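no rush on this but wanted to send it before i forget. what follows is a protein written twice so to speak, once as letters and once as structure tokens for the fold. mainly i need to know what kind of three dimensional shape the backbone takes. thanks a lot i owe you, the record is right below.
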Amino acid sequence: MRPFSYLRAATAEEALDTFAARPGAQFLGGGTNLVDLMKLGVTAPEFLIDVSRLPLDTVEATADGGLHVGATVRNSDLAAHPVVRTRYTALSQALLSGASGQLRNTATTGGNLLQRTRCLYFQDTSKPCNKREPGTGCPAREGVHRDLAVLGHSAHCVATHPSDMAVALAALDAVVHVRGADGERTVPVTDFHRLPGDRPDVDTVLLPGELITGVTMPPRPDGGHSAYRKARDRASYAFALASVAAAVRVEDGVVREASLAFGGLAHRPWRARAAEEVLRGAPATADTFARAADAELAAAEPLRDNAFKVALARNLTVSVLSDLASRAEEGARPPT
């Protein structure tokens, strides 16, 4: 690891001013990803601005009945929050399926959104990688790509985004609050991360020096249910081969509202708009759920060794939606 300078910012203003004055600076949250990349030599910031102690560590109800989560809220605290567990269940489940208990106690909401890919070629500085060094190539396309993208990839990059939390937030229509030199703005989570195109080195739509200050989720409808399910190579502390976050409202056996997002399949959390169109107004049956998954996954372009992800995502989708429909049916039954 190369030497670097360090400042623990007391306020967002101090963090932003310091960044503006120090070219090559990076913001540091819990450090569970950034510090690893520094140790590997993937990144070498000259100046770290620690924002983990900023007063952005609360979870609060919004005026319209939604929920605002500060950027420095720890993953473990967010997963255990009673409102998250009951009203935004998919988010709690996603957080608890990620990393280990120790890492969840350190990782922050803002930092989780900014995780970088775990592609082996990106993390190995002895190998070329367009995400790490644009123009050097993407050896993963013909090399080791079993864990990598089947949706939205390009000739320049087939990496996947590793976050579980971000997939749930995408399905829950969350928005990210950011602050920079030009003031504050919000970005839907579904638009926050980029597909690789010809610039895979740019992960998000953040402008230089912008700081994530929080995430807001809209109110959940009465009778709505959500869930997150993840398939991985081992039972814990493993990134998703495929995952599904779903939020639905089923009435009288019909899907009235539906939002769906995939993880482990693309360079960003993949909001499944085509699947949602099939679901809305259709019978809440396994056949409908399979047709919805097929409508979305028709766009998949698997590589030599990861075509299994398409079937895996399809099966996860049917399973998650079937369970949610059953929960809705049980909730509609009169007490006995």
User: Anything to note?
Assistant: The longest strand covers residues 242-251.
